[in-house]
Amino acid sequence: MQAIKALIDLGKSREQPGVNDRMGLIEDMQGRYGTAGDDATRTLGNVVAESATLLYSVFGEKGSEGIREFFQQPDIVALCNVPLESPQFKEACNELATRENAHWAALAKANPDAPGPAAGAAFSGSFRNYIQQGVATVVRMHDRGENENLASTVAGLNAFSRQTTTTTADRTQGSVPPPTAPTNPPGRTP
Questions:
Q1: What whole-number distance in Å separates Cα of residue 99 and Cα of residue 38?
Q2: Quick one: pLDDT at residue 162?
């Protein structure tokens, strides 16, 4: 419930005048890694851009202070450079999620009344990793031209979270254990 409250508080907050960190981050990432439909290799940076775009559509610049600077750090850029199809992608995705959670947790500790850091810190690294993996699935689908509409996107996310096939006898075959949605530590559940 803490995560939901943090998001509600963020939605009720005011944008800081002159801050364009989230939009600036989106522009940085799209400039560096391209956008759907171009010939660029898709990377974790594309996942970051899509995630930031979604957050911007919901919250605008509320709570975005400092996120652009975080993603300009050389070690974070190196993680964002990892291609989606690389064997190192899952490890890079997990490392980025963990580092971003630590970033927001430190800001929340330093500014306990700030709604942006509180909302950012409310989502664990494992939960962030799970979301990034789902967004990566959507990025891959979009590049293949498979998510021209919302129904296709939802189907792709269902495939991500339930990677099994069912026979006519209702038996699951060739299944891979589905990734489980991580739980946040006590007091940090969404």
A1: 29
A2: 53
**Region for residue 42 given its phi and psi (left: phi exceeds 0; alpha: psi -120 to 50; beta: otherwise):** beta
Q: Pick the residue with more confidence: 20 or 151?
A: 20
166 half-sphere exposure, CB direction, 13 A CA radius:
5
Counting Cβ atoms within 10 Å, is residue 149 exposed (0-12), middle (13-18) or buried (19+)?
Answer: exposed
pLDDT computed for residue 175 by the predictor: 39
User: What is the mean pLDDT of the segment spanning 105-121?
Assistant: 93
Question: Residue 84's pLDDT band (boundaries 50, 70, 90)?
Answer: very high
**Cα–Cα distance for residue pair 152/137, rounded to 1 Å:** 12
- Over range 51-76, report the average pLDDT: 93
